[in-house]
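protein under study:
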Amino acid sequence: MQCRYPNAWSTLPAAPSSPAVLRAGLLSPAGGRVRGPAQETTDGNDVRANSGVMTLVNVFAVDPENQQRLVAVLKEGTEALMSKLAGYISASIHVSKDGRRVINYSQWKSVKDIEAMRQHPDVGPYMKRVAGLGTFEAIACEVSYVHHGG
């Protein structure tokens, strides 16, 4: 897989969170738990605006027959590699109904933690596995707005 934007993985430009991303429910705390709209967490992993936490959003384009394979590789990489790295907070994986998109939404304590993750010796081989399943765009963001119902 090639990144749609050649510098997206090596140079993570800051971009505001899209209201569409927020409406799509791409907000979940650590541990893969999904929070209902009116619930709050008490474990310090709430998604908050202007907290300094960095969000890394990877939007993958895949053939429908590869969607679940990509999910399995992302899940394995999250549990075995990413979650063990300094600065990792949480990750969630989202799939489109048509089978053509996978969105990996992860949060890190700082942009330096994201840069260190990218330099980790196990990340290159992991990304090669991911690269065999589709194309992607990586976007580094800061949360600028969060709304909880209730």
Q: What stands out?
A: The helical segments are 19-23, 67-80, 111-119, 123-131. Residues 30 and 103 are 16 Å apart (CA to CA). The chain has one domain: 1-16+52-145. The chain has four helices and five strands.
